[in-house]
Amino acid sequence: MSDFDYKAELAKVPEEPGVYRYFDSEGTVIYVGKAKNLKNRVSSYFVKSNQHDRKTKRLVSQIRKIEFTIVNTEFDALLLENNLIKKYQPKFNILLRDDKMYPFICITNEPFPKVITTRRVDRKLGTFFGPFANQKAMYAILEMFGQLYKFRTCSLNLTPSNINNRKFKVCLEYHIGNCKGPCEGLQKEEEYIAEIDQAKHILKGNLSLPKGYFEEMMLAAASKLAFEEAQEFKEKLLVLDKFQSKSTVVNPNIKDVDVFSIVSDEQTAFLNFMKITNGFITQTQTWDVKKKLDELDEDILTMMVWEMRDKYQSEAKEVITNIPLAIELKGVENTLPQIGDKRKILDMSLKNVLYFRKEKADRQVAEESGGDRKMRVLLTLKNDLQLKTLPRHIECFDNSNIQGTNPVSAMVCFKDGIPSKKDYRHFTPKTVIGPNDFATMYEVITRRYSRLLEEEADLPDLIIVDGGKGQLSASCDALKALNLYGKVPIIGIAKRLEEIYFPEDSIPLYIDKKSESLKLIQRLRDEAHRFGITKHRDKRSKNFIISQLENIEGIGKITATKLLKHFGTVSKIYEAPLEELETLLGKAKAKSLKEQLNIINPV
């Protein structure tokens, strides 16, 4: 930044709404942004640079020139930003258009318009409907048009003068009944345009007008006793009814509305759009956007709402979203429903976007794992928990006690998805009195990772604690005290519904019960529980034996513990020769113990 005096540049920036542009040393636009207050927003890149992430710092390091444009409102700034991003395609801006070019249906601007499909949008060519992310739906509409109407497919220039001068002859399409021969003047243009208008209404999702027209024509033909003609119109009505029955009905009371939902992680935002017309879903598309900087979800969503409404030529006055838009769009109401039919529509959109994200993650896992099952499970776990790194080293903690007696905690370690038993550890609480799961978890986490820090050993890629929000919170407090919070991912798993809890998030994650990642978490939890229970039983048995030995005259707790530690079991104490007991306890105490053991039946 030595050759760029940002303070001098900032002095020129006004406190007005507008759009700013950053240029690099070659004069290329590298970023376009909008702001309610240009001075505050632009200054934040330079004044608060220590708070930026790596990508934003890289952007700032490349800025050599700043330009700005003042506008009247935030909405005007959104429009200008959108246009400039499309024009310059800056490398630090997210892309505002999908990489895929979905097809459109176009009704051409010419005498006797044609209905065609195209991937190239040129508004001068005609009126465009789409794009159709689902091409089956598009071809279903075209097939229906073929059953309802006789639109021409030729490329003839059917001007009135050409038709009157009889420049053209009907083709095979006329003879097989697919065209009414407008090229020879056999079909009036008014009649043809009326059918084109009906097709436009169908493409807009309004089937009531063409249905009303066919019903009217059917009744008129029947009144003239033209029953064959009436039957033709009846069959067209049946075609429309069949098509309508296959459409996804949302709610007839909800007319025209656009629905958007967004979920994201640090690298990618996933979005779904549903266009609803007269209670039917007429368009739907799901896509992802790669983040270039630390963009907020509401900013991405607002850009995409504007982009997709323009792309799909939406005139809906209401937009339903799962988070608020960053700014208010002119003439459009932004709704965030919590209950009712609109909430059901939003849930449908969210279901689509979550499925899309999972499907994409699954494809990525399959590609990256290369058929290695262990690697596939770890990659799935990484995606499900949104971890930054692959969890090759996982440690799981569990507390065991019965009515507060003989408490013990266990830590098991999995490496590359399989148990690493040499790294298993037991902990007997030293600072906790009585059954206090939270305090015990705090102590055990502190002891484990204090030791690893002292030894400069590798920290795990993931910590799992058996328990819900309470145990997780205590564990997080321990990590904070060690300055490890945020450096090592940690989750809690609650047994009842297998909820996964994250720090500072009250809403749990529910992983698919059939998921390999959840099964791995359950294996860790169950292994920690087994390991802890085994130690707990050993400890309880040992304490019982010590208490029994203490009942022998002259044997206290210290002596009982020494005996058990040396011999291991009570039966070996019974079998021990007097000489060995004398070496351990002295002659007098050994003789007394041997005499008393001889009159006690071994347990």
Verbal overview:
Residues 15-94 form the GIY-YIG domain. It is found in: Cytoplasm. Its main location: cytoplasm. The UvrABC repair system catalyzes the recognition and processing of DNA lesions. UvrC both incises the 5' and 3' sides of the lesion. The N-terminal half is responsible for the 3' incision and the C-terminal half is responsible for the 5' incision. By secondary structure, this protein is an alpha+beta fold. 46% of the residues lie in helices and 19% in strands. The chain has helices at 6-12, 38-47, 54-62, 74-88, 135-148, 160-164, 172-175, 189-203, 208-223, 227-246, 297-311, 340-369, 373-384, 437-455, 469-481, 516-550, 557-567, 570-575, 578-585, 587-598, and strands at residues 18-23, 29-35, 65-70, 104-108, 115-118, 126-129, 257-264, 268-277, 280-290, 318-321, 333-335, 393-402, 405-415, 418-419, 425-427, 462-466, 490-494, 499-502, 505-509. The N and C termini lie far apart (82 Å).
